[in-house]
Amino acid sequence: MARSYVEEARRRVGPKRQRIVPIVERLIAEHPDATIALRFRTDLELLVSVMLSAQTTDVNVNRVTERLFEKYRRPEDYLAVPVAELENDIRATGFFRQKTKSLRGTMAKLLENFGGEVPSRMEDLLTLPGVARKTANVVVAERGQAEGVVVDTHVRRLSQRLGLTRQEDPVKIERDLMRLVPREYWNPFPHLLIWHGRRVCIARRPQCEVCVLNDLCPASRVEVGAIPSHTRA
């Protein structure tokens, strides 16, 4: 989009601080089922699922963990088998050698420093091998104590389209969103953007004509006068 068009679009939808709560509220109404897609029963299973989800789909991870979690129930279980066996058990998630190394390192650290339990603090999670900020953010948020805003490809793309950030780096995008999104929405907000990105605001063919945010989005392809009345405030 030409710069003049972008500036005009931003003026049309208004300041982002005025739009953020309506954006969240409309997405909650539109996607009441927006939750994490990974399947887990315990904090350890949550941590493992998120670690395995790098560079693959949640559907693929769930397919693998359905059997994995029957075999590996405690940190000790991941260390008790040969490396090649664990690699084979998670092979379908991709990058299985590095993920195996990270899993075994994390399990050893949990046993050594945290009594075999998954720590609740972000700073402790970040000491675990293979656990970067995105993974730690997901784990903390799913336990009801969000300390940040998870930024994946959907969150990055929709945040930019909605004019909530101009940044490209995920860390800087998260910083912008933390300043903008009310803290009580830090946990659901990423899920809402992810589900909206999958269902409506699709990367190559955004369905602006049926989007509940089309009058709040500077990237909307729908003309102001053409916005259906049911999509407005």
Question: Which terms summarize this structure?
Answer:
233 residues, mainly alpha, 12 helices, 55% helix, elongated, disordered C terminus
What does this structure look like?
By secondary structure, the chain is mainly α. It has helices at residues 3-13, 16-30, 43-52, 58-71, 75-80, 83-90, 96-113, 122-125, 133-142, 153-161, 170-180, 188-199. It is elongated, with a radius of gyration of 20 Å. The two termini are 26 Å apart.
Shape: elongated
* E-strand count: 0
Mean pLDDT: 92
Distance between the termini: 26 Å
Largest β sheet strand count, sense and barrel closure: none
Q: What fraction of residues sit in β-strands? A: under 5%
Derived from helix and strand composition plus strand pairing, the structural class reads: mainly alpha
- Give the low-confidence spans: 225-233
Explain briefly what this protein structure is.
By secondary structure, the protein is mainly alpha-helical. It has helices at about 5-15, 15-30, 45-50, 60-70, 75-80, 85-90, 95-115, 120-125, 135-140, 155-160, 170-180, 190-200.
Write the layout of secondary structure elements.
Layout: H1 3-13, H2 16-30, H3 43-52, H4 58-71, H5 75-80, H6 83-90, H7 96-113, H8 122-125, H9 133-142, H10 153-161, H11 170-180, H12 188-199
Helix pairs in contact: 3-9, 6-7, 10-12
